[in-house]
Design brief:
The complex is a heterodimer of chains A (137) and B (536). Chain A has 137 residues and is of the alpha/beta class. Helices cover 34% and strands 18% of the residues of chain A. Chain A has four helices and five strands; from the N terminus they run βαβαβαββα. With 536 residues, chain B is of the alpha+beta class. In chain B, 59% of the residues lie in helices and 15% in strands. Chain B is built from 13 helices and twelve strands. In chain B, strand 3 and strand 4 form a beta hairpin. Classes of the chains: A alpha/beta (137), B alpha+beta (536). At the A-B interface, helix 1 of A face helix 7 and helix 8 of B.
């Protein structure tokens, strides 16, 4: 909590309005600058408009794996060339341990994964530590 | 090859037998015949000698020597008569068929005289065979000689001439030589004829034997040989066919019977083979069908499994999304506005927070158990250091233990072998066992964790001084959602799924889990893990 970078702009892309609200409260308490988007499309627009320092990306939104696709596009597509270095943290309501998350294996499909994972519900301390670690890079 | 050797052997044997029998027979026969003929000739010669003597007797009595001489010459011209001569006691030839011999002396030692004059005293009477002799002339052919003594008679010494004294027994000797050339020639011809006859007989018998062997032995045996060769090559349709009414014919018949039986058994075997093949084919077809059905069933199961996974994922996503928001809301509320709440509100919010945590834990356990029990459960087996994993779990549990002043005593040997296991799964096992131990132990209690290696197995013991498990509950503690009544009565929260998950993982590692417990004194869980160095 003490080493928070207040200038950091964080984009939260999640289809759950309540989660966006809760995470926003948490991050603002950080304090971080928070922008939210309710789907990949809006996320893409905000991404280009705001050029955030970090993205919290939900895996399952409109479809099962649209978080993966967006992540892959940002990391590889020409379109996102200037934003490619933006760190991405996956926020998922599906735990890694259950194994079900990887029924769709990103690396097996030739997709590029995120910089970090975090399970819902998020603990503020854990979230901040991961964000700071990536921002320092 | 057999034809030649068998026939030749038999002909050779027959030849020896024929040569011996016919040869000996011919020899004896010829000899007997010759002896008989010689005897006949001897008698004839003696008779001839006597006839000549009688014919010239009158001339001798009348001492008309020129008459005698002429008669001898006449007779000597006869075919077969070599010579005739008459000599006196002194050996002087007085008359002969050859005039030039007259007056010649014949020595007593000469072979013609020897018969009578071998001893000092001359023999006076001679038997017929003794009168004759056979010898070979210098001319090259054999002759039969007849010596006929001319005895004294009253007329000889009574006559007026008184030429011969009375006491003289033998007056002279008439010697006739008869040629045996014709006789010997006849004998030779006869021998030749016998030889030719023998040869013809021999040839005829040999030919007959050969024919016999070829017809009755060789041909059937050849057919038998061909039969055995053909059968050896697998042609069971070959038959000898024609049989002679002899032993070889019997052999052929037996051979054909044998072949027929052989063919029959082979056909039976082939039928069995075919039957077996058909059975195998049928069975294979059945198996293929079953396999197909199994494949379809498996596919269906996989589809169901996928559906289940998908369902679980959506369920997890949905539940956790709600829970995440609820928990975050509660913790945020508790953090920021806690002091503004009254006691009842504080309690309600705390209860809500606690129960949402329990719900999250239950959700996690259900999902974990469902995954471990599903066909998709993957164990990434690799060499692991069991003490390291235990150490990590103990560290994670330390906070929880310290809150209730429970001491975790860990005994781990310095050196420990690596074991093939899934580290994540092992961590789940230890963390469940250790969490349980801490959870069910009262404040200021002790939890002991130790690792030992024994022959072929690794033993991990987690024991506590907790509330223990009643013996009647021991058999059920691994059942899903089962919670011992005393655990509930102590108001210790739990999902009832922890040990079920542990059981799944232990079984997947071919290990075993033993529990010893006494109500109120504590429990000891012993996890035995086989020390395999091969990947599962």
């Amino acid at each position: 909590m003490k080493k928070i970078n207040p200038k950091a702009k964080i984009l939260v892309i999640d289809d759950d309005p309540d989660f966006r609200k809760v995470v926003s409260i948490m991050l603002k308490a950080g304090p971080y600058h928070v922008i939210t988007a309710k789907n990949p499309q809006e996320g893409k627009e905000k991404l280009f408009a705001e050029k955030p320092d970090l993205i919290l990306l939900d895996i399952m939104m409109d479809s099962l794996f649209d978080g993966f696709s967006l992540c892959h596009d940002i990391k590889t597509s020409e379109e996102y060339q200037e934003l490619r270095e933006t760190p991405i943290i996956f926020v998922s309501a599906v735990k890694e341990m259950t194994g079900s998350r990887f029924t769709f294996n990103p690396s097996e499909q030739g997709l590029v994964g995120p910089d970090d994972y975090i399970d819902k519900p998020v603990q503020p301390d854990d979230l901040f530590a991961r964000i700071e670690k990536l921002l320092k890079k | 090859m057999l034809r030649r050797s068998l026939a030749i052997k038999l002909i050779f044997c027959v030849a020896i037998i024929l040569i011996l029998t016919i040869g000996i027979f011919a020899y004896i026969n010829t000899n007997i015949q010759r002896k008989y003929l010689i005897e006949e000739m001897q008698q004839n010669a003696v008779r001839l000698s006597q006839t000549i003597e009688r014919s010239i007797q009158y001339d001798m009595l009348t001492a008309r020597s020129d008459y005698i001489q002429r008669r001898l010459e006449d007779i000597g011209e006869q075919e077969g008569i070599e010579h005739i001569r008459i000599f006196d006691k002194k050996g002087k030839i007085t008359a002969a068929s050859s005039v030039e011999e007259i007056g010649m002396l014949i020595d007593k030692q000469a072979e013609a005289c020897y018969t009578c004059h071998s001893d000092r005293e001359a023999l006076k009477r001679l038997s017929t065979p003794d009168k004759t002799r056979i010898f070979k002339l210098e001319k090259g052919y054999r002759v039969l000689g007849v010596v006929n003594p001319i005895y004294n008679e009253p007329k000889c010494y009574d006559d007026a001439c008184h030429f011969h004294p009375k006491d003289q027994n033998v007056l002279g000797v008439m010697d006739i030589l008869i040629s045996l050339a014709r006789f010997d020639k006849q004998i030779g011809t006869s021998r030749k004829q016998i030889l030719i006859y023998f040869l013809f007989t021999f040839l005829f018998i040999s030919a007959s034997i050969s024919l016999f062997i070829i017809l009755f032995v060789n041909t059937p045996i050849h057919r038998l040989i061909e039969g055995t060769q053909r059968i050896a090559k697998g042609d069971l349709n070959y038959r000898i066919g024609s049989y002679h009414s002899d032993e070889i014919g019997e052999l052929g018949r037996s051979f054909d019977m044998m072949t027929t039986e052989l063919k029959k058994s082979r056909e039976e075997i082939e039928q069995w083979n075919l039957k077996l093949k058909n059975e195998v084919k049928k069975a294979t077809e059945k198996l293929r069908k079953i396999n197909k059905e199994l494949n379809t069933a498996n596919k269906k199961l996989q589809e169901l499994d996928n559906m289940k996974s998908d369902f679980m994922r959506r369920m997890e996503h949905g539940s956790r999304s709600h829970l995440a928001v609820i928990k975050s809301c509660l913790s945020l509320a508790l953090g920021e506005h806690y002091s503004e709440l009254n006691e009842q509100q504080k309690d309600l919010v705390k209860t809500a927070e606690r129960r949402s945590s329990a719900l999250l834990e239950l959700l996690d356990d259900i999902l974990l158990l469902s995954y471990r029990k599903s066909t998709k459960a993957v164990y990434h087996m690799k060499p692991v250091q069991v003490p390291d994993i235990i150490q990590k779990v103990v560290e994670d549990t330390q906070d929880q233990a310290q809150k209730r002043s429970i001491m975790i005593d860990v005994q781990i040997p310095l050196e420990f072998p690596q074991v093939l296991a899934d580290p994540e799964a092992l961590k789940e096992v230890f963390s469940n066992l250790l969490n349980n131990a801490v959870k069910y132990t009262e404040e200021h209690g002790t939890v002991n964790v130790s690792v030992k290696q024994k022959k072929g197995i690794i033993e991990i013991i987690v024991s506590d001084t907790g509330i223990g498990i009643a013996s009647e509950d021991l058999s059920q503690i691994f059942d899903e959602f089962y919670r011992a009544p005393n655990a509930k009565s102590y108001k210790i929260e739990g999902t009832g799924l922890g040990l079920a998950i542990v059981k799944e993982i232990v079984e997947a590692h071919h290990g075993s889990l033993k529990v010893q417990s006494e109500l109120g004194k504590g429990s000891t869980f012993t996890f035995l893990l086989p020390k395999t160095d091969k990947a599962e």
